[in-house]
Amino acid sequence: MSASRETTVQAWSSSPQAHLPRLVVGISGATGIAYGVRILELARKAGVQTHLIVTPAGQQTRAHETGLSAADLAAMADVAYRPADVGAAIASGSFRTAGMIVAPCSIRTLSAIAYSNGDNLLTRAADVTLKERRRLVLMVRETPLTLGHLRAMTAVTESGGIVMPPVPAFYLRPESVDDIVAHTAGRALELLGIDVPDQPRWGE
Ligand SMILES: Cc1cc2nc3c(=O)[nH]c(=O)nc-3n(C[C@H](O)[C@H](O)[C@H](O)COP(=O)(O)O)c2cc1C
């Protein structure tokens, strides 16, 4: 077992789902697919099993923003699902996971999750995550924000979700876009108790 995997198992052992290092990752059609890609990479390094759903709009941003094919992206996860497959394992609360990250999260997907509209497998899996009182992190990406966007963020927060816009921390003096993406992706994973080796920290 590698050192990073050992660290991860320790991190999980304090969680109620210690024996189940499974993470659902949703990629929707906001700009910033690099965050979702980096989360898949870091989760794999940490020995966490990933379950991926990419919306059709997410596939559009993949084509605009990366050199990855749909198959390349799917291969970065342990299991990749079709968004229309609302009967997949992750659509049920009986399939135990440690939680879900949506990175990036479009306003459309945020709104669907906020109002329990399980219209595709991503939004259904997010609703399941909330109803099972598991951790849900939404990397919402839009600016500026309307009152409607803010209300949807409030509704998700009231249901127990975590709204985490991908906002860079400049005090760490990032030297590249990659540094910024890696730091934010690492913070999202740490919200689920997943240990990220080499994560830059203030004061360390
Ligand atoms: C290149 C590109 C960038 C986009 N960026 C954003 C964005 O940052 N935030 C957002 O809410 N929507 C953005 N959109 C629009 C969404 O893709 C669109 O609302 C879509 O219906 C979202 O669907 P989904 O939530 O099912 O992925 C973008 C679309 C494209 C093609």
TrEMBL record:
Q: Which Pfam families match?
A: Flavoprotein
Residue positions annotated to bind dimethylallyl phosphate are: 171, 187
* This enzyme's EC code(s): 2.5.1.129
Record-listed FMN binding positions: 29-31, 55, 106-109, 141
Sorted keywords for this record are:
Flavoprotein, FMN, Prenyltransferase, Transferase
Q: What reaction gets catalysed by this protein?
A: dimethylallyl phosphate + FMNH2 = prenylated FMNH2 + phosphate
Q: Where is the Flavoprotein domain?
A: 22-184
Cross-referenced InterPro entries: Flavin_trans-like, Flavoprotein, UbiX-like
Keyword Transmembrane listed? The answer is: no
Does the keyword field hold Transferase?
yes
Look up the coiled coil feature and give its residue ranges: none
Q: What function is annotated for this protein?
A: Flavin prenyltransferase that catalyzes the synthesis of the prenylated FMN cofactor (prenyl-FMN) for 4-hydroxy-3-polyprenylbenzoic acid decarboxylase UbiD. The prenyltransferase is metal-independent and links a dimethylallyl moiety from dimethylallyl monophosphate (DMAP) to the flavin N5 and C6 atoms of FMN.
Member of which family? Belongs to the UbiX/PAD1 family.
How is this protein named in the record?
Answer: Flavin prenyltransferase UbiX
Q: Which organism is it from?
A: Catenulispora yoronensis
| Upper classification of the organism | Bacteria, Bacillati, Actinomycetota, Actinomycetes, Catenulisporales
Name the encoding gene, please. Answer: ubiX
